[in-house]
């Protein structure tokens, strides 16, 4: 098991009604919500714990550490495992108030495990954790939530890892960036119909600082939270992929073409240009993570619509791989940075805020 987990750090570099439930695995009381309705305007059914739960967050990347910080500030004990992690990851975990623990210790102590890692590592980690839980007589009420950007088929594969185990499974997806003061991403969650109690327990983490939304209703189950993530990211990160592709293609024709593109966007599509100045720089350090995410979105589209349509996001996977290989100072990165800086100067010169 331990050797299997060591693979993870290197890989890390590589219209239904919706109701919202607060609470956790050890239910003690029904309480009033701080808000009478969910974000989608539906009534809340609320369940809370007598004391803060123990939650494992794997791993302490930018998102994982920010989620952990939110939970520790709410009084939760947050575990993680730092075996093989970089110095920057260890520092993030320390600042977030996370406690280093082995997978076996996590399996025994945690009420929830939140897997927040690159898509390519999601199955490997679930398999490693299952082995640790089996070998250590882990908490029989533990719930494992896969919060990664994976396709419905991949998350169903991960759910099947826990077949025959006492570990309960939640399909979760994070919509938005890392939580900060004044900002909360949404944790959408779905589960098999027979695991509705587990789903309600996970959504109960709203009592401890997370913004959670349960996907319930006709046909809802494992795979639906991930399908939502694929659809949302396919639009947002797909837009960034599209604009990045066309900037690079215009420049490949000639730098004058790229400059003309920038000026025409400013004249006829200023909203798009302003968005490019924010989204492209933000994409650069995350391009390596988005490769696997685009591949998962491509698989999701292929399963639903066919192979032809799946080529769109497969192409974006190639694009983000190209950008990652050009970091930090390759030609493509230089082209993108120049376009953004010239766009910012043009926007400032026009008096647009």
From TrEMBL:
6-phosphogluconate dehydrogenase NADP-binding domain ranges (all copies): 54-179
One GO molecular-function entry: NADP binding
Gene3D superfamilies documented for this protein: N-(1-d-carboxylethyl)-l-norvaline Dehydrogenase, domain 2, NAD(P)-binding Rossmann-like Domain
Limits of the Phosphogluconate dehydrogenase NAD-binding putative C-terminal domain: 252-323
InterPro entries according to UniProt: 6-PGluconate_DH-like_C_sf, 6PGD_dom2, 6PGDH_NADP-bd, HIBADH-related_NP60_sf, NAD(P)-bd_dom_sf, Pgluconate_DH_NAD-bd_C
Family designation: Belongs to the HIBADH-related family. NP60 subfamily.
Protein name: 6-phosphogluconate dehydrogenase C-terminal domain-like protein
Organism per entry: Dichomitus squalens
